[in-house]
Amino acid sequence: MLKLINLSKNFTLHMHNDKIIEGFINVTFNVKEGRSLGISGPSGAGKSSIIKCIYRTYLASAGSINYESVQFGNVDLANAPEHIILKIRDNEMGYITQFLRVIPRVPCDLVVAEPLILAGKPAQEALDMSRLMLSRLGIPERLFGTFPATFSGGEQQRVNIARAVIRSPRLLLLDEPTASLDNKSVGAVMGILHELREKGSTMIGIFHDPSIMKEFSDSIYSVEEKIQ
Amino acid sequence: MIPVLEVKNISKIYGKECPHCLDPENAGGSICPFCHSVAACRDVSFSLYEDEVLGIVGESGSGKSTLLKILNFDEEPTRGVMEIGRGNPGKFGIKGINLDFIENANLLTLNPYRKRLLRNHLMGMVYQNPHLGLKMHISSGGNIGERLLMAGWRNIGSIRSRAMELLIKTEVPPERMDEAPSKFSGGMQQRVQIAKALSNNPIILYLDEPTTGLDLSVQARVLDLVKKLQKELKLAMIVVSHDLGIIRHLTSRTIVMKNGRVVESGLTDQVLEDPQNAYTQLLVHSNL
Questions:
Q1: Is A16 within 8 Å of chain B by CB?
Q2: Of the four, A99, A151, B89, B94, which is 20 to 30 A from A222 by CA?
Q3: Would you say residue B89 has pLDDT above 60?
Q4: What is the arithmetic mean of pLDDT over B1-23?
Q5: How far away is chain A from the Cα of B154, in angstroms, using its nearest Cα?
Q6: A contacts of B274 (beta carbons < 8 Å)
Q7: Nearest residue of B to residue A118 by CA position?
């Protein structure tokens, strides 16, 4: 379903005399529908950059990302027009980062319900599903109506996860989603990921903890350390 | 997918034009070194799809407001093409009004009557300065009513109830609908302007620095309102702002302008996290 071919990413820093920083080079892998791929490697090897290129937050410098979209057929995510990427993000692809960008001034249960409401689900039903998901992830009910900006790091992280998984995305990108969570929450997250896999979601993930990585992945792509 | 709005090679030159005005070589500034004309917009092209919010960023004088004025027919471009709803004009069928002429037409070359017709029925504009969008000494309800009259509404009862509905939607106390905006605070004036801009159910809403000059809490309230209405009505929107925070909050796609030219375009998160152009990198790193 997703095939990266010789994908490379460089950053040109125009403010530093056009210095070129290498992100990663010649990444090639293939993920079949319904499978989970782990990306491993030392910090700074470019793991997060690969995920960001797939989501198109980063523009790849060379290579292609062939994705079989339900809406558009075969699409190269590295070069497809922006409106196509937006539709794929809205309807097929989810992304969970280690760094949180909290949506301001929206209560927690609505933050999570919003993707469902935008997809046309009645508001009440969406809110019920959202609250159920938040409870599963251990967010106390008294916080449902408050702004996530006031939450602890771990709580924000779980709101982030809930928002991404609530639509059961067809392709889910995970960048250290469990980094700031305690063991109990990690267990809840892994349970939800397991269910998504049963439903047929394809996943690409980065996990710092080797045992979580092992539990998550069907196969592992290893990014080598760059030779300086 | 067919774009709601498509814009090709829009240029606006103030002064007598010479063949060098649009030279890519003159990247240094917007003043042509040969004839000293000012090129406010140079070959600007983009498309906007249904339900999309496009941000236009750039420093003062980069041409972003001129571009918006051209799109709203407030200003005539030197040249350029603008198309709306290509291939599917019937979709905008409005009772009693024939808009078939928009099919395959360059809207920028239509006669003034047809431009007004399109502006009154398909577009809405929110200006930075409420004095441009509102008549300050006519009641808020009257301001909205005026626009509805231009869009062909004739029944005074339904005009009043529509104005009331819009003021409630934009969180203006409806009991103040007979008061003039000159008596309102800046934030409330902006909300009346939004109500007026939305009254004709536009397919495209333009916002030119809609919250510049408002204090922070008021700004947040106006932005939240715009965001809510955009989602509810699935509006295509163009937001001009120099504030990257507002662009990040409201838009899904962004174009960056400098000296009248588009120097970068992409998904908003990509433009902000992985800017390609030297100017965009400077802009992103200048953000506090």
A1: no
A2: A99
A3: no
A4: 88
A5: 34
A6: 11, 52, 57-59
A7: B231
Residues in chain B closer than 8 A to A85 (CB atoms): 267
Q: How many residue pairs bridge chain A and chain B with CB atoms within 8 Å of each other?
A: 49
ipTM (interface pTM): 0.92
Contacts with A105 from chain B: Cβ below 8 Å:
220, 224
| Minimal Cβ distance to A118: which of B49, B220, B231 | B231
> What pTM value is reported for the model?
0.92
Structure tokens at A153: 């790091």
**Over the stretch B241-264, which tens digit does the pLDDT of each residue have?**
989 999 999 999 999 999 999 999
A16-20, A139-143, B23-27: segment of lowest average pLDDT:
B23-27
Closest CA to B277 of B257, B248, B249: B257
Q: Which among B273, B274, B277 is the top mutation candidate for probing chain A, defined by the most A β-carbons within 10 Å of its own β-carbon?
A: B274
Task: Tell me which chain B residues have a C-beta less than 8 angstroms from the C-beta of A100.
Answer: none
